[in-house]
Amino acid sequence: MALRSFGQRLYDNAPLLLCLAILGWSGNFIVGRLVGAAMPPVTFAFLRWVLAFTLLAPWSVPRIRRDAVALRDGWPVVLTLSITGVAVFNAFVYRGLQTTSAVNGLILQSVCPVLIIVFAFLAHREPPRLLQLAGLAVSLTGVWVVVSRGSPFSTAGLRVAGGDAWILAAVASYAVYSVALRAKPAVHPLSLLGTTFGLGALALIPFVIAEIAAGATMPRTVGTVAAVAYVGVVPSIVSYFCFNRGVELAGAARAGQYIHLMPVFGAVLAFLIVHESLQLFHVVGAAIVAAGIACAERGQHP
Q1: What pLDDT score does 281 carry?
Q2: How far is CA 168 from CA 89, 163, 185, in A?
Q3: What's the CA angle centered on 91, arms 89 and 94, to 5 degrees?
């Protein structure tokens, strides 16, 4: 009973759900960087979604059958979610991480909340409030402190990399996904996840074939298997479920603010996994990001 009560409280806690989603996606970013040079990006994304769909199938497929009418009636939104948030976003991210620097990638990732606010206004006439805009500016400042390693007024470490355009396109695609979630059909969360995972994987098949035809190979090592296993479970099933529920509870613009936590969580994961030292600028940046999110939270309510 206590466990069930805890699960219900977690299911209704938007900030915690959104933090868990971003934590899982931060790990995905690190894994993508680690294996980016060895893994064909579209094939990597395809294997991720095939694994996620397979693991979820025992629970999602029965619900997909029950929700078939609603899913069919809402096919434009379902297809949009499958292409933007599943197929395009991840394939483009893995492609971009092959050539762009970590600093550039994180800065471009921080553009997502801005695009979500813009797209939410265009699609739903959801105008941002003043405190939301202020929170956005404060959060971006915190992100810049982290990615500039405590030198926010220096651009010496930045360079324009070929993967930047891929990352930016991925971020724009995910902003569309976040806004489209507001119009999702009224189906069970597992129905939506299973359907979008399956359709997203199917959409990638022609590009996987093209990748193989171009001579790309998939290395069979413990590291690559572990990478596919991680991205197929944590950032796919866990993070997508948490983020979808968080958007449902909080709205697209408010949920988008939490994406600013990605470079902060990434720094912590780097410290825990690859034993990089935690610097003062990580702490300062995290505090500024937290202040920005708190400001945006207050701006959510008139």
Answers
A1: 76
A2: 10, 9, 28
A3: 105
